[in-house]
Structure formats: C-alpha cells, structure tokens
C-alpha cells in the first residue's frame, strides 16, 4: 500500500500573508480572500480521484482542507507534523523588521542557507519533518492512490525538496507556492518526480512565509 500521486496544497491567504508578516506556527486564520481562494481551488481539486486528505492542524490549513472535504465527503486527518516552520523569534514580525533587527541572520536566510529561522528550525529539519509525515500518510493510501496534503508555504517547499532528493539549500530552484496553489508529485519506480508546481486558481499571491 502506498500512494502513487501526491497533491501538496498551500492554504489560502491570511492577514499575515497580506502584510508580509511571518506566521510560522502562530495559528492565524484565513481572511475573506483566503476563504474565496480555498473555495475556488477546492472546486477544481474535488474533480481529482482523491483517496485521502490530511492537513496541518493549524486553522488556516484545516479550513482550506475543509473547503475540499465538504465537497468530496472524505474524512480529514490533522497532523501537527505538517505545521509551518518554527520561525522562533521572527513569528509575528514583518519582513522589514526582521531584516533590521537580525541583518546577518536574515541575509543568510534570504540566500537560502540552512540556518535556524529566527532561532527555530533549519530548512533541513523542516524538510525532514514534513517529508516524513507525507511519506507516512502516503504509505497508508491504497496502492496507486492519490493523497492530498494541505500545509504551508515554507513547509511544502522544504518537503518537496526532500521528497525529490534535493538539498535544503536548493530552494532557488522553485518559487514559493502561491496561496491556495499546489504541487503534484508522482512516484516513478522508487522515487518521486515533480509533475506540476504552482498549479491553481487565478488571483492568488506568493505572500510571506506561512
């Protein structure tokens, strides 16, 4: 038993995304735009042959996933291991404020170095956590099935890199997932291959981490 297709879906917009404010693991809800984004994406994703839906236990991911499960009738499993990066002292702060208060650390983070995000997790720790959770849930899906994971921007980017066997510092290979957009990975032999990235409805934005 294991899924052959992964759909990795970022949550809709939150007020913090709109302000370019770091969320990390703060439990920030969707705003009106984010709820509309989630509904539009869910209408598209509900046409896929999904076998299971899991999400981060943070409300912005749960509410995004619920927009889909309300259409499909599938049960939603919540997993704290799919949460956003632990951004430590940077959580709740604007990007400009972080750059001013922690110039060297922020510059290294912007370069894609595998440094602690605000004193929290490194990219490698984040990728291992998220990819491990995705693989665990994928293993419970009937062979050849499709697993959808609703999570967060930095978490999914780090998880995709890990699932593809790329180093955590290879983030420049991909832009951030836009709000309510997704990536599709398919299993080829024993490895995952990226089939789509930043697929989704129009009108979403990249926004801040989270």
TrEMBL record:
GO terms for molecular function: phosphatase activity. GO terms for cellular component: cytoplasm. InterPro entries: His_Pase_superF_clade-1, His_PPase_superfam, PG/BPGM_mutase_AS, PGM_Phosphatase. The active site is at residues 11, 84. Signal peptide: none annotated. Substrate binds at residues 10-17, 60, 110-111. This is Phosphoglycerate mutase. The lineage of its organism: Bacteria, Bacillati, Actinomycetota, Actinomycetes, Kineosporiales.
């Amino acid at each position: 038993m294991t899924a052959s297709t992964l759909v990795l879906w970022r949550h809709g917009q939150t007020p913090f995304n709109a302000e370019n404010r770091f969320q990390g693991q703060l439990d920030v809800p969707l705003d009106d735009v984010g709820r509309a984004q989630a509904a539009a994406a869910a209408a598209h994703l509900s046409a896929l042959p999904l076998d299971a839906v899991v999400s981060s236990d943070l409300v912005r991911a749960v509410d995004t996933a619920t927009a889909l499960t309300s259409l499909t009738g599938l049960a939603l499993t919540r997993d704290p291991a799919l949460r956003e990066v632990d951004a430590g002292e940077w959580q709740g702060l604007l990007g400009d404020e972080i750059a001013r208060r922690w110039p060297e650390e922020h510059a290294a983070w912007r370069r894609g170095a595998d440094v602690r995000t605000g004193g929290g997790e490194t990219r490698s720790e984040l990728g291992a956590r998220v990819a491990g959770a995705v693989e665990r849930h994928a293993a419970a899906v009937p062979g050849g099935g499709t697993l959808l994971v609703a999570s967060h921007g930095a978490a999914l980017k780090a998880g995709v890199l890990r699932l593809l066997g790329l180093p955590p510092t290879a983030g420049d290979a991909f832009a951030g997932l836009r709000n309510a957009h997704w990536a599709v990975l398919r299993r080829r032999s024993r490895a995952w291959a990226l089939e789509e990235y930043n697929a989704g409805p129009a009108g979403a934005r990249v926004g801040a981490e989270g």
